Amino acid sequence: MNKDLDLPERSKAPVNLAEDTILDEATVSRLLELGISRRGFLSFCTGMASLMVLPQAMIPKLAAAATAPTKPSVVYMSFQECTGCLESLVNSFAFRGGTTIDNLILNMISLDYQETLMAAAGYQAEDLLKTVTSKPGYVLVVDGSIPAKWDSGYFVSGGRSGVARFRDAAKNAGLIIAVGTCASFGGLPKADPNPTGAVSISELMASLGIRKPLINVPGCPPIPEVITGVILYYLASGMPSLDSLYRPTMFYEKTVHDECYREESFEDGPFALTFDDANARKGGCLFKLGCKGPATHNACSTIKWNQGTSFPMMSGHGCIGCAEPDFWDRINLNGKKGFYVQLAHGGDDD
Amino acid sequence: MATPNVIIDPVTRIEGHLRIQAYAIPDGKGGGTIKDPGLSASTMVRGVEQILKGRDPRDAWAFTQRICGVCTVVHGLTSVRAVENAIGIKVSKNADYIRNMMIGAQYVHDHVMHFYHLHALDWVDVVSALKAIPANTASLSAKNNPNYKPNNGKLPDAIYFQNVLDRLNGLVNRGQLGLFANGYWGHSAYKLSPEENLLLVSHYLEALGWAREVVKLHTIFGGKDPHPNLVVGGMPCTLSSNTGPVSEDKGGTSLNTAGLAIIKKSVDTMKTFVDQVYLPDVVLVATKYKEWADYGATEGNFLCFGEFPDPALVKKEFVDGAIDYPAGYVFPPGVIWANNLNGLFPFDESKVTENVAHAWYSGSDAGAHPSVGSTVLNYTGPAPDSASYMLDESKRYSWIKSPRYNGQPMEVGPLAHILMMHARNTLDTDKQVRTGVAQYWTGALKLGFDQLNSTLGRIFCRMLETKIIADQMANWYQRYEANKAGAYWNPNTFTRLTQPKSWPKSVGFGFTEAPRGALGHWVKINPTTYMIDNYQCIVASQWNAGPRDAKGIEGPYEHALVGHVLADVKKPLEVLRTIHSFDPCIGCAVHIVDSEGQPLVQVEVNHSYRSLS
Ligand code: SF4
Ligand code: SF4
């Protein structure tokens, strides 16, 4: 990992939110135009605050950003990926009735390039990419790893290599967000023996000498609210605090094990030993079935998945560690790889 | 062939990275006609199968699942079935019910999103929608979608559509069209009225909200979506001993009272949206674009591996809770040849070959059975980053191999499924196909049955199969509900995996009919290390999107472009319509395996047994 990348200062300590946060009249009326009540907005902020340590002073800024006449441009580019990251992001958007808070997030940005969803194709898409990346300051979201060798032919789009496409798009970006474990750490393409010479975005930036702020949002895929939460935070308040792997600490400081409700039985059991035994039904700890929760930094057990519906351990399968670097090749107990092999240590072994 | 003058790269609104080239004979007015087959090329590769070598077979599903995040369940499940087949494990009733529901949910979710979010903008002009009169749109909605009440439980009225218009105008006024920028708006091939356009744009937006609700079924059973968890031997989720919410004190699992209610609600929500919105919208679009039943035909060879073992046909229950089905699949396995749409022939796995003559792999040009294919990445295409980058159909030009059945290219996917069911005509669901075709296609639309082999036919068949599956979901849910306290997982699985002597054979195969068509995985497990020796996938979009074979016979995408008349070769909307009608999933189509050329041993395909494996 290249330590030369611009790392921001840690953000201030959190302040508790209050219902009486001041929002100016103009902002409130613009929120209403978007179909969002003041109350609904504040309760959303309170919810987000508990997830991502949102300072109270930020709320008016957030509201201003949400209702700004011109939306910040987001350019989303895909490389060696599976579209799972985008699919996850799409799950965080809702339009029905026009009053959901996610709608606000969509209204806060202008998604100017995204190949899976955009109307334009071919020439018109390439043309659009040139236009939107010519105005400096946009947020560049990237999913997928990139083959390090530009002329390998392992990634070509519009006749251009992944390396060239990324380099050109990064040039005027104000911030780069690597979404998913593939973009953050190399992910599946980089798994042993890395047949295509795939590298992560931070590695490619280092080798190309691109010095830009970078945020890694790992997960295979990441939790949608984490992706949108990071974008939201950046727009309202600048760079969030990051750890040494460029992960925002507000979402990745703790392991999924820290907040797992099965932790009750982690020390002394009862452990689930098969997937449907009595202990599995009781919600016993899945450690002996290979759960990688104690070594995995992510927010699955707090935010949960698909609007708080469930998360892997709640549905009976151990964590496979999908937000960690090289999780596909993790060495566990007795030197073995595998999602059903117990961790070598009981706790955070990073 | 003359230098291609129709180039689409990147093809957007698909999964993965695809390039299309074709030559249209110019008409002197900027348009032209495509007389020869086009060229379809995948330009991204990751090497998933090579990565699988030497891994624990229990883990393979998680790797193959990441072949595609859109058809996330089917690749995982096909892998699980392949490993279960290799080690000779039958799974419990509940596992099969849940798997059916998960694949079914995948179909309904994918097909609806394909229509609205990936395909609709080929037919719907967003800029024209800005001219719609809201009150007229409300009357149109009341007529077209009389039961759909997204407006706080009421029919959408003029104010409702004015709101949608305001939001669109907001994008226009601030000059930030976002995802709608640079479309082919105003193209002469757009035929809908402003009100029809506005109605469909409004459903486009609403379908996003709907989609994130229905995936909750995957979340309850699999813990997350995309990429829910699966397990060799059954399903990892199990009924909670605590009916209330999970907690540190009370424990429990996602399958509690609330979780079961979410599944039921997902199932209901799927059906309502399909009946009230998707079905009538497809019929509306088809009515306005009937001429598209004359474009986009493939050679007329169709293939289906079979899917959705019908629980109504359960024959026998084994001691360990596993069940046996006779060969009763909602989508029958089979083959249809040369547009003989009533002749359903049996599928024989040994007739499948893969050809790399025009793909970037080293190896023999002769077609080989997947079990003996030897393929190593070998890029020989043009160097990227040059203005003269162009692919040449006389050389190698794609990361997709060309699968063939009996030496012929085959179309797979919804059109194939519907034709198979129509030809079989025994199960209730087959009759449902006949009724649907008679009511809408040959009835209201007055189109010929054989015209289903077309761009419009593919769209229609995708909708019809979605309707059939959405109806079946309730049936599978009921059966699961009645048996929910039973087994979810076969405890012999992991012991069996560590005792290779008890394996019936070391090679397994798993088949699934994915939303985009026939999908098969082959796994060979090493009898001494218990790890994967070889892994091979033959994937739906590979059949459809593959390049020419050694004989120069083009793949279905390439063939389907012949005859297209373009109004403007610089805005090849007509080409996109046909390519999108296949629902390309290119991440899926590209895969490699690094085999030593060892035969995987002859694999027997026995469909009456397959659901257990
Ligand atoms: S991180 Fe996972 S979900 Fe995202 S592109 Fe990579 S494989 Fe797909
Ligand atoms: S080991 Fe896994 S199941 Fe057990 S408490 Fe930790 S995260 Fe939860």
Automatic annotation (TrEMBL), chain A:
Q: Which residues form a coiled coil?
A: none
Signal sequence extent: none
Q: Which InterPro entries match?
A: Cytochrome-c3_hydrogenase_C, NADH_UbQ_OxRdtase-like_20kDa, NiFe-Hase_small_C_sf, NiFe_Hase_small_N_sf, NiFe_hydrogenase_ssu, TAT_signal
Which EC numbers does the record give? Answer: 1.12.99.6
What biological processes does GO assign it?
anaerobic respiration
Which residues does the annotation say bind [4Fe-4S] cluster 2?
H257, C260, C285, C291
Its main subcellular localisation, reduced to a broad class, is other
The UniProt GO MF terms for this protein read: 3 iron, 4 sulfur cluster binding; 4 iron, 4 sulfur cluster binding; electron transfer activity; ferredoxin hydrogenase activity; hydrogenase (acceptor) activity; metal ion binding
Domain Cytochrome-c3 hydrogenase C-terminal spans what residues?
A: 252-331
Is the keyword Nucleotidyltransferase in the record?
no
One CC-aspect GO term: cell envelope
Q: Its catalytic activity?
A: H2 + A = AH2
Subunit record text: Heterodimer of a large and a small subunit.
Q: Which family does it belong to?
A: Belongs to the [NiFe]/[NiFeSe] hydrogenase small subunit family.
**Entry protein name:** hydrogenase (acceptor)
Q: Which residues bind [4Fe-4S] cluster 1?
A: C82, C85, C182, C220
From the record, give the transmembrane residue ranges.
none
Q: Name the positions where [3Fe-4S] cluster binds.
A: C300, C319, C322
- UniProt keyword list: 3Fe-4S, 4Fe-4S, Iron, Iron-sulfur, Metal-binding, Oxidoreductase, Signal
Encoding gene, per UniProt annotation: hyaA
TrEMBL record, chain B:
Which UniProt keywords are given for this protein, alphabetically ordered?
Iron, Magnesium, Metal-binding, Nickel, Oxidoreductase
Cited PROSITE patterns: NI_HGENASE_L_1 (PS00507), NI_HGENASE_L_2 (PS00508)
Q: What class of enzyme is it?
A: oxidoreductase
According to UniProt, the reaction catalysed is: H2 + A = AH2
* InterPro entries given in the database record: Ni-dep_hyd_lsu, Ni-dep_hyd_lsu_Ni_BS, NiFe-Hase_large, NiFe/NiFeSe_hydrgnase_LSU
Q: Where in the cell is it found?
A: Cell membrane
Its GO CC terms? plasma membrane
Q: Which SUPFAM superfamilies match?
A: HydB/Nqo4-like
Q: How does it sit in the membrane?
A: Peripheral membrane protein
Q: Does the keyword Metal-binding apply?
A: yes
Describe its assembly: Heterodimer of a large and a small subunit.
Name the protein family.
Belongs to the [NiFe]/[NiFeSe] hydrogenase large subunit family.
Protein name per UniProt:
Uptake hydrogenase large subunit
Q: Which species does the entry assign this protein to? A: Candidatus Contendobacter odensis Run_B_J11
What taxonomic lineage is listed for the species of origin? Bacteria, Pseudomonadati, Pseudomonadota, Gammaproteobacteria, Candidatus Competibacteraceae
Name the gene that codes for it: hyaB
